[in-house]
Amino acid sequence: MTCVENIMSREIMTVSPLDSVRKAADMMNDLKIGCFPVVDGGRLVGIITSRDVRYSHPNRLVIDAMSKDLVTVTPSCSIWEAAETMERHGIERLVVTENGNLLGIVTKLQVYHELGKHIDPLTGLNRAEYLYHTADKLIRNNTAVTIIFIDLDGFGEIDKEHGHIVGDEVLRRVGLVIKAHTEENLDYPCRYAGDEFAVVTVRPADTAKEYALQIVNAIANNNWHDRMKITASAGVINWRPLMNNDCDIRKLINTASLASTRAKKKGVPVVTVDCQDG
Fold first, then answer.
1. Per-residue DSSP letters for 46-79?
2. Separation between Cα atoms, residue 17 and residue 57, nearest integer Å
3. pTM for the predicted model, two decimal places
4. Which domain covers residue 208, as residue numbers?
5. Domain identity same for 23 and 152
6. SS3 146
7. How many whole angstroms separate alpha carbon 182 and alpha carbon 67?
8. pLDDT tens across 54-73, in order?
9. What are phi and psi of 247, to 5 degrees?
């Protein structure tokens, strides 16, 4: 999973709490840097930003102008968690620390630039790594989740008969169908790979099969190019807190994928399995 340590700036310039604001401002201008961690005796004690500098007299000390309530993350923090933290606190950068040691700084620009790489350009959906992040976060918070794995039926034949341009248009419109059936803070869709899609949802488990069926039916009933018949099969797996304390996210998603294959073989639109069924 893409973490902060993969994108953070490691070459860190620092200032002392007893330096003047003027010195910090001059260093920011010279180095084209928007902030400096403030370090005292090797210990991180604050951060001074260009905003702090603008609202402080240049003769004041850094200790009087710096922000002392630091928002920090560890190097293993995912880029999605970093973005959420920045938005929640309304800040433009995060200090990266581990065991009290200053390791780097990551900016909002760096985080969102990296996030952009994890969006599928054809469908506009997040890629598979986002699914792993979201499912893992929800499960760690003991939130009941359902994973719906959606696989188009016979998609290879569509490419062969109609060409890849038409095939890409089908995938794009499937993405739109899935988006149209997701609600904010309930459903988290992604294009998993190729003609495979997936949704992590926190809808009640007893409605999950019906929800998956709505998506599959919407795909089948779409007004497709040249009256093509596009269908999909879905596998559904529910996870509840205390069901499995050693939950393996990849195994969970793989089980949902196998359930979609089972649906194809049975000729039914949706197959649901329990987490304990494997």
1. EEEEHHHHHTS-TTSBHHHHSB-S--EE-TT-BH
2. 15
3. 0.81
4. 120-277
5. no
6. strand
7. 40
8. 999 999 999 999 988 888 99
9. -60, 125
